[in-house]
Every structure is written in C-alpha cells, then in structure tokens.
Design goal:
Shape of chain B: globular
Helix content of chain B: 10-25%
Helix content of chain A: 25-40%
Largest sheet of chain B: 9 strands, antiparallel
Number of helices of chain B: 4
Distance between the termini of chain B: 12 Å
Oligomer: heterodimer
Distance between the termini of chain A: 58 Å
Number of strands of chain B: 9
Number of strands of chain A: 25
Largest interface: A-B, 46 and 39 residues
Largest sheet of chain A: 6 strands, mixed
Strand content of chain A: 15-25%
C-alpha cells in the first residue's frame, strides 16, 4: 500500500480525492505518495509539484491537480511539470546513464470535479476518479533497481549525505571501508521519517525516537521544508548542545538550495541557542530574545546559578521569565526544538509563548537520553491549562488524510542491535545485581509498557504485563541487519577492565594509533568520551599527552568559544569530550573511558546510567567501553549477561507500586538532600548507639515521639 | 645562549605538560621554517596565512580570526590564545613575538575556575562586559628599529597601546613567558599550574640599554 505523506497544498479537495483513490487501491500500488511535494528550485524560484508518487512498480508519477472545473491549458502545465522534474533528475548522477535518464517520469492531470472527456492514455493524460485506474494500467513496469536512488533524489537526501569528506581507501576490508559502506547504505528516509519531515500541523507536534533514529536530520529537513514553503515565516531551530549548530546549518543550507535554487534567507530562518546572551547574532538565544522583547530581567549563567541553584540555572531563569511576563509578545511563526529531553518544560513554554496565535512548535526528544534524569511530562502538563481548565495542548488521535501530531521514529539507523540493546540493558539495569531495597536490579522503567513496542522492541517470550517475566528483542525491521553484519559480533562492542588508569591510557593510545595508521579511520571517525563531567578535564589530560608525544594531536571539546563546531573541520585532531558535548554527535568508533563511574553512584544512579546509555549510543559502528577496578568488573558482568541472552532483554516487568518505589530509591538527589540523608543517618546511628550502650533509655524519650516512630516503622513492615 | 633546537624542545615539552594539566583544549606542534639566507623561524603548525590576521582589526575580530585559523600554540580552557614565535639567524636569536590573547566573551579562568573544571555547558552564557586585553612580549635585535627607551629591543606591550613598550632586560625563553602567563592568569590559591611546568635553564643574553634600566622595566631572571 502506498504510504501517503501530507505536505501543505493549496489544493486540499483534489488532494484528498487523490489520497482516497490510493487508499482504495490498497496493496496494488506500493511506494510513497507525497502531497504538495517536492519543491523544485528553478531559475524563476521555487516550483511546487501538486503530488508525486514514487513507486517500485510504476516509477515516478507526477500529478497536476485541478481543484475546480477549469482544465484550460492543462497540456502546457504538464509540459512545465515534466521539464522541471527532468531538469532536477538530470542533476543527479545516480539517475543518468550516458546522456539519458534511467527513469522516465510520467505526468498526469487529475481533475475530479471538472467536466471533460477523459483521456487516460494519450500523450497528455487527463483523468478523474473513475479513469485514473486505466492510466496506471497503461504504464510499463520499471527496473526495480532505479527505485531507491529515485526516492533518495525526491527526498533530497542524496545531496545531504554527500556532506562528508571523501575517504581515501585502499583496503576494502578496513574499518574505513566499512564506515563508507554504512554511510552509503542509509540513503533514504523511511516512511515515519518522511511523515515527520513533511507533515506540518498548525499546532504543537511531538517527535519521539531513540538515539540514532534520525531526529536531528528530520528536524533540519523539516525546518528547511517549512522555509522553502513559507519564505516569509520567521522560523527558529533551537537545541541544547551547541555542538549541533554547525550540523543544522549545513543540513538546512543544502536542503533549501535543493528546493529553491537559493540560499536560505537566514534572516527568517534562525539556528539559535536556547539560552543566549547579549553580544551579537552568534550569541543570541530564544530565552534571551524573550526577555528582551518582553522587557524582562535576563539571567546569565552566573546570576541564574546564584538565584536558582546549581543544576536549575536555566529552568529557574525560564520559570522566572514566565512568572514575570504579563502579555507575551510573539516573534516566530514556527519553532523547532531538538533534544527537548534536556530542557525543563518551562523552556518549551517559553517557545510556546514566543509563537503567534498558531502554535507551530515541533519538539523532538528521546526519553532515555535525558542527562538530568528529568524526563518530559506529557504535553498537557508541559503546556498547562487555559482559564477554563482545559489543557492548552492535547494530542489528537491520528486520522487518515491529516498530518500526525505525535510521531514516533522506531527504527534506529545509527546503532546496531547489539550496541543498542546493551545500552538499554545497562541504562535500565536489566541485569544489574538486585538491590536489597527494591528487590530488583532495575533502575528505572517506562510507565507505559507499550513504549517498548513503539521504540522497536517485540515480545519474544513471556508477556509485557506488570509483574510478568518478559523477553524483549529488537526486530530486523527496527534494527536493520546491515548495521551489524559488517563486522564480527564481538568486534561491535567490547568491554575492557584495566588494572589502573595508566594501563587504560596506554591501551587507548595504542588502539587509536592502530585505527588511524592501519585501519583507514579518519580523525573525525573517532570520539573519546569521559562520562563524568566533573573529572573529564583531569582524566583526559594524560591520555591526550601520550597521544601528543606520539605525534597525534587532539582537542577537548570545551566551552564554546565561537564557531560551534565539534569536530575539527580540517580533521587533523581527535575529539575528546565530556558527556554533555558528546550529545547529538556520532562517530564510527566510540571509546568510553572510566566507565566504572557509571556503575553506581549514591543519589544519582539513574543519571550515571543515562550517561553510559548516551555515550554508547554515539557509535555508528564500534564501541569500546573501558574502565578500571571492581565496579568495571561488575559492569562487565552485566554486559556478559546481555550478550549471553543474545542481546535480548529478559526481566520481570515491575508493577506500578514497584516502579514508584524505583523512582524514589533511584531518584536524583540534590546536594542538600544528600547532606540531609547523611546527617539523618549519622544522628540515628548515634541515638541507637547511645541506647544500646545504656547512655540513654528509651523511656527517657518523649512518648509522643516514640509513638510516631512506631507508626512509621509499623507502616514499613 | 639558547639555541633554535633548544627553544623548540622547550615549546614541545611545555605543550605536553599543558595538555596533561587540562589547561589546554587544543594545541599545535611547533615547527621550524627555513627562510632564505640562513634565517630560521620557529612557528606553530598552521595552514593559515598569518599576515592577513595581524593588523588593523578590532580586538574581537582579531581574536576570532586567530581562532578560526587555529593560529596558535595553545587554545586555553577559557578560550585564551597563546602564540610563541622565534626567529634565528646563524644560531643567534633575531626576534620573538610572544602573545597572550584572552577570549573577549568568556570569563577569565582564574576568576571562576569551577565552571571550566566542571564542564558546565552554559559557561559561555555571560552578560557581564568582559574587559580583556592582549599582552605581547616582542624582541627585535635589528639596530634599525632600536631607539633606546622609545623602542627597546625587548619590550612588553599591554593592550594595543601604540607606544606602550615597557623595557625588558632580555629576550624571553618560552619557559619564562609561560611561567609568567600561568602564574599571573591561571594559578589560583589552591592550584599552582606554574609549578607543574619543569624549569629550563636556558636563557638569552641581556639586551637592555643602560638608559632603559633607569626607567620602570622588567628584569628576566638569569639562572
């Protein structure tokens, strides 16, 4: 069945009828039907095609839609459509052989409401609902090999994937060659990504997906598509990790040129920080602008830390601004937020209040990648309630012919199945030693069980029910085999435990030299991540020094100085990074050092496990998890379990009560909470010691307090 | 008298120590360029054409051009740029240019070390006006430029004041320059980065004129 993807169109009625035709055809026509897409850049500006079918059987069919009754000059219009698409196709080497196109596009006029004598098979075919069938019957079959490259060109993905530098490869079996193969294999958007890019709702839209499901590329293409469609709109793209800025810029630029033949008008499409500060366009931010526009007090990093406390700087600043503002002035027509899991809801509300009456806010997130352990609440809670007590944002059920408001990207194109399931197993603590306080090793769990299925797992055994044992595994569909078949299984992900940090450093340095000198990897194919932000600077120093003395230059992704670039553009330096700046980036080979820090942490267990999850999922091909000491050995035991289960997740789904308990036991404690707990423990043990030693008698204590203690303890038993 | 090779060796060793200490986020290897007439220069390895980025620009533009072209030996944790350049003729020092360019829009490391140590993502969200100015130690052994007191052979320039040339007793080795920078701008009460750099015993001969010693001047230690 053809997947229908709804872009915006000035011809809604005829589009709807065309869509219904395809719905009724069911399985007899395969491929994608794009409504209001693609746009083609021409010397006279953008040219919009009413609808396009890309199908493995029929090839490319372009529809000129007639909304009313007037079919005058339809032949001329067909000629123009044909010439435009042919010109576009001819620009792509993958679609030509010699001087000829390898695919012949068809153009047909579809005029459901007009009066005319249908001619579905002539030189200028014109049809209505009744006769469209015979048009398709008259088409010859195409060579199935041309389908993929054609789709890639229609989706404008082919030019975007080319961004990377050329590889100079000699050994077809080297890691470098493997990476090239992987990069070339991900040439098309899948249908969910296609929906997410093109479909726009005049309301809040949410895009969820795992690490590596393509959220960033989807958002960039979406921003570019909105800009190409509506060049007068003021559009903002914002994100948490500034390391993403360069990537967004390049993607949007390429895609807009493809669609309009012009550079984007950067006055109307802004790639902008979330926070921002005074000092010119580079430093601008959504929050900073919000304060400026509405005459509010602006908090910078230091003043926010002073006022709202460590870890709550930006959240506090946003909440304060929302409290102070009385009549928020709009500035944007659309805002797209990447990595929304790393923002507090208050920032999303700032975005919401920065939009005019139509709240085109698109936010993408991955609940598992939250580094702060505060996952985003549902939209009703994020955006609050209106004066009648109704939620301001509520997602409607998907309807055919309507753009989807809530999209989940279930396929993971970055991480292979073993890598992703290992990351999940460690992040959730699936195979962790049971904790005496909870009776399970689990650290956190989705409240909605179905989310496991949504993110691409299937139940292999047992039942996905509270309190039941379940065996979850990823499917070939959600984790394509080509991502893991390129290398032996035990090369995809490895764990190594060292005696001490020196040994870890020298092993790392040797492996990196091998990667660069023998295995045809380039500098920007490698990232070295130290998961604990507080130790990163000190920990990576000795390793970088060793590499420097061996002639290999490196950098530490530090405070963003100006050009928001993560990898060295000329590619002669290795990227070391803490976990925050690793986010949103990816590389073929990922080294994680000092992973022992992620085994456990008093008062931050979920947070350190999330860091490990985020670090592992940066890898496009291989991961090496390194560490020292006993905790590293325990982590390796967990890895051995998941490997022993053939990279499936085998556990008992916690009940609601257990989940709540998990959330309390493993919650993120603030420094004050930790101190209070420590003090409480100390005071209590002193009291017990005194009583036991006979320095104090229970009967000395006030009766009322004893009674309260009894009640508390009784409740626990 | 320190030789070309000794100076390069010093720079390499100092680079290595700076990386280890965690103060330096990116760095270039020092390299030697042979110019016509037995003239050799030690510069940092960069593909950029430096002549385009040195003159007639506002400080912010200058800083950004240096950063973009990676025209430095060290990019420090707080965004400061450090350059070390020497030229020699037949084994004798001809000149040097040792420069410290703090980042115009980041807080100085010494004043707020914890935001850099803790890898705070938002450390650059700053609304305070930051007053930074470059510091240069220049040495030029040519007799044509030399004018006692007005243009000492070895001098310190603060900011980009055109006629600020504080006399200095001799050319500086990389060690003395970096010791000065670390001691003045990076050491904190609890952490002495300057003590982590192993001392070098090389030095250059005195270049200060007698009249220059009678005004306020800087004395380079002689080991």
């Amino acid at each position: 069945m053809a997947e229908i993807i709804w872009g915006s169109t000035p011809k809604p009625v005829s589009s709807q009828q065309l869509a219904s035709f395809f719905d009724e055809k069911g399985d007899s026509i395969d491929g994608f039907l794009y409504i209001g897409y693609p746009l083609i850049g021409t010397p006279e500006g953008r040219f919009r095609i009413d609808a396009t079918l890309v199908s493995p059987t029929y090839g490319v069919v372009l529809f000129n839609l007639v909304e009313g009754r007037d079919i005058e000059d339809y032949e001329d219009e067909q000629d123009e459509t044909y010439n435009r698409i042919v010109a576009k196709f001819r620009n792509h080497k993958t679609l030509t052989k010699g001087r000829k196109l390898i695919i012949e596009p068809w153009v047909v006029t579809f005029a459901p409401a007009a009066q005319f004598s249908p001619d579905p098979t002539g030189d200028y075919p014109i049809t209505n609902t009744k006769t469209l069938d015979s048009f398709f019957d008259s088409l010859p079959d195409i060579d199935p090999k041309v389908y993929e490259p054609t789709l890639s060109v229609v989706q404008s993905i082919s030019t975007i994937r080319k961004g990377k530098r050329k590889r100079n490869l000699k050994d077809p079996n080297s890691r470098g060659s493997t990476l090239k193969f992987l990069e070339d294999s991900i040439a098309n958007l899948d249908n969910q990504q296609g929906h997410a890019v093109i479909e726009t709702v005049d309301d809040v839209q949410r895009i969820r997906g795992l690490a590596g499901s393509g959220k960033t590329i989807v958002l960039a293409l979406k921003a570019a598509y909105l800009h190409a469609q509506n060049p007068d709109w003021k559009i903002a793209v914002t994100f948490h990790t500034r390391a993403l800025k360069g990537q967004f810029h390049q993607l949007i630029n390429t895609f807009v040129i493809e669609q309009t033949n012009e550079e984007p008008d950067w006055k109307n499409i802004e790639i902008i920080n979330a926070w921002g500060a005074p000092g010119g366009q580079d430093r601008d931010g959504i929050y900073y602008r919000f304060c400026q526009r509405n005459g509010l007090e602006f908090y910078d990093y230091t003043s926010a830390k002073r006022s709202f406390g460590r870890g709550y700087e930006f959240e506090g600043a946003c909440e304060e601004a929302l409290t102070q503002v009385t009549d928020p002035q709009p500035e944007y027509d659309a805002i797209l937020v990447d990595e929304a899991q790393d923002f507090a809801p208050a920032f999303l509300r700032i975005c919401y209040e920065s939009l005019g009456e139509t709240k085109r806010l698109v936010y993408a997130y991955d609940e598992l990648q939250s580094l702060s352990e505060k996952s985003l609440p549902p939209p009703e809670e994020v955006f609050g309630y209106n004066s009648e007590g109704e939620p301001r944002v509520r997602f409607t059920e998907p309807e055919p012919g309507k753009p989807k408001q809530d999209i989940i990207l279930e396929k993971c194109y970055r991480n292979s199945r073993p890598v992703l399931t290992t990351a999940h197993a460690l992040g959730f603590g699936i195979y962790r030693e049971p904790d005496s306080r909870t009776g399970t090793g689990l650290i956190q769990m989705f409240d909605h069980r179905e989310l496991w299925l949504d993110v691409g797992y299937e139940v292999l055994d047992g039942a996905l029910e509270d309190g039941s044992r379940v065996l979850l595994g990823r499917t070939e569909n959600s984790s394509p085999a080509f991502l893991e078949d390129h290398s032996p299984k035990n090369d995809l992900i490895q764990f190594h435990c060292f005696h001490d940090k020196d040994e870890q450093a020298s092993w790392l340095s040797q492996e990196i030299q091998k990667n660069l000198n023998e295995e045809e990897l380039q500098f920007d194919d490698i990232i070295i991540i130290n998961p604990d932000p507080l130790t990163t600077r000190k920990e990576v120093g000795p390793v970088r020094e060793t590499l420097f003395n061996n002639g290999i230059n490196s950098h530490l992704a530090g405070v963003d100085t100006s050009p928001d670039v993560f990898f060295e553009p000329d590619g002669e330096s290795l990227a070391f990074t803490g976990i925050y700046r690793a986010k949103g980036n990816e590389a073929g080979m990922v080294y994680i050092m000092n992973a022992q820090d992620c085994y456990s942490s008093f008062g931050n267990l979920a947070r350190v496990r999330n860091r490990l999850f985020s670090a592992i999922t940066r890898s496009k091909a291989w991961v090496r998890v390194l560490g020292v000491g006993e905790n590293m050995e325990k982590l390796i035991e967990e890895f051995n379990e998941v490997r022993g289960k053939k990279f499936n997740l085998d556990f008992t789904y916690p009940t609601e009560e257990q989940r709540e308990h998990l959330n309390i036991v493993n919650r993120d404690m603030s420094t004050e909470e930790k101190q209070r707990l420590e003090k409480g423990t100390k005071d209590l043990s002193k009291l017990l010691d005194d009583i036991e030693a006979g320095n104090l008698f229970l009967s000395d204590l006030p009766e009322e307090q004893i009674a309260r203690l009894k009640t508390l303890l009784g409740g626990k038993e | 008298m320190a030789s070309l090779e000794e100076i390069r060796e010093q720079i390499t060793r100092i680079t290595s120590e700076l990386i280890k200490s965690g103060l330096c986020d990116h760095q270039n290897y020092p390299s030697i360029i042979e110019k016509p007439g037995k003239h050799k220069e030690i510069v940092f390895d960069t593909k950029a054409d430096l002549s385009t980025v040195l003159k007639n620009q506002g400080y912010k533009e200058l800083y950004e051009a240096l950063l973009k072209n990676k025209a430095y030996n060290f990019l420090m944790v707080d965004g400061a740029i450090i350059q070390l350049m020497y030229s020699f003729h037949k084994g004798d020092i001809l000149g040097h240019r040792l420069a410290f360019f703090p980042c115009p829009n980041l807080l100085e490391y010494q004043n707020i070390p914890e935001i850099y140590e803790n890898d705070e993502v938002s450390a650059d969200i700053i609304s305070e006006k930051i007053v930074t100015f470059p510091i240069r130690f220049d040495f030029d052994n040519s007799e044509e430029k030399f004018i006692s007191i007005d243009h000492p052979k070895s001098h310190l320039t603060l900011g980009e004041y055109r006629n600020c040339r504080i006399p200095v007793s001799a050319p500086l080795t990389p060690f003395y320059f970096m010791d000065f920078i670390l001691r003045s701008f990076y050491d904190t009460r609890d952490q002495k980065f300057s003590s982590q750099i192993p001392p070098f015993s090389h030095s250059f001969s005195k270049s200060i004129s007698n009249s220059e010693t009678e005004v306020v001047h800087l004395q380079i230690p002689s080991p």
